[in-house]
Amino acid sequence: MQFPITPSRNHTCMANDPQSSLNPNPSDQPASNFVPEAGDDFVLTPGVREMTDRALDYLKIGYPVHLAGPAGTGKTTLAFHIAAQVGQPVVLIHGNDDFSSGDLIGKDNGYRKTTVIDNYVRSVKKIDEKLSVNWSDNRLTRACQHGHTLIYDEFNRTRPEANNALLSVLEEGILVIQRSHGTDTYMQVHPNFRVILTSNPEEYAGVHKTQDALLDRLISIHIDHYDRSTEIQITTAKSGLSEADSAYIVDLVRAVREKLPGKNPPTIRACIAIGRMLAHREGRPHPTDPFFIAVCTDILAGFRGGGAIAWSTNDLVELAREIHARHEEPVRNKRFRAITSEAA
């Protein structure tokens, strides 16, 4: 599930409604926004549609939506899909440990000196100098001002004190702009402003614990690995393999996922990677194919269980044989019934 972004000449993509094409004349908007569009390989299953509709309902009545779950479960893709249905330009922020509140709101950016020399009377020379601080808005401020949809991807990679800027925005609808010289200003948040956040579990490396006050303001929708049918459809759409071959790959990855005792199981990305490699070589998944086993070893053996590499090539071969036998049994039974029917 991907959303290709096709920016216009000034790198701003706008839409008049959720179904419209890009507007090439967004002169009144900042140049860092876009409207995401679903690609042809986006898989919209009943489960994804239900989750999207529920998230849209929360956004329509003014609640920020928080998509929480492990890596590789399609949180960011789903966030773009939901934002596309909202139909407003999107401002994208990726969480960063180096962020401060100024990286979200804005900050002073240098000085401007103005000098006026008045020599109207030749014998009198008057010089008037003024020094002012240049202020530069950042993405949160622009989104609040113009009523855009903010996607804050992996927001808990940013330190909690930086994310405190969101508290008044989400509760009172007011953005507090703090200046370095001590003068605070306040901006009323645009009524069309909407927020979609994504986060990884707190035990992941580089992730901070989110303050309770912020979590209390969010509607958290927990996302786990997709069901088997959805993973097969996604793998088929992304790789170009047949549905039967995609099902074989998905079952193999899901078997590895179930057997891993650690917290870093393979995700749908592993299915897609294996599928793309086979499609590139015009191959098929089979336990006796050295290339297939090598690709599975490359992609799956690095996933850790209990702190050590959990899968050797022999482990994967045995597991691939089990999956192959499971897939071949219905085929053999179907052939046997066909032969029996012809003989009768």
Description:
The protein is built from twelve helices and eleven strands. It is an alpha/beta fold. The protein folds into two domains: 46-96 and 144-222, P-loop containing nucleotide triphosphate hydrolases (Rossmann fold), CATH 3.40.50; 228-343, no CATH class. The strands form four sheets. Strands 2-5-8-1-9 form a five-stranded parallel sheet, with helices on both faces. A two-stranded antiparallel ribbon has the order 3-4. It is elongated, with a radius of gyration of 27 Å. Mean pLDDT is 79; it is low at 1-31.
Any idea of the CATH class of the largest domain? Alpha Beta
Order of neighbouring strands in the sheet with most strands: 2-5-8-1-9
Task: State the end-to-end distance.
Answer: 49 Å
Helix content: 40-55%
Instruction: Give the helices and strands as they follow along the chain.
Output: HEHEHEEHEHHEEEHEHHHHEEH
DSSP strand count = 11
- Round the mean pLDDT to the nearest integer and report it: 79
Strand content: 15-25%
Low-pLDDT stretches are: 1-31
Q: Classify the secondary structure makeup into a structural class.
A: alpha/beta
Rounded to an integer, what's the Rg over CA atoms? Answer: 27 Å
Counting structural domains, the number is 2
- Judging by the overall fold, what is the CATH architecture of the largest domain? 3-Layer(aba) Sandwich
The CATH superfamily label of the largest domain reads P-loop containing nucleotide triphosphate hydrolases
CATH topology of the largest domain: Rossmann fold
Choose one word for the global shape.
elongated
- How large is the count of helical segments? 12
| Assembly form of the protein | single chain
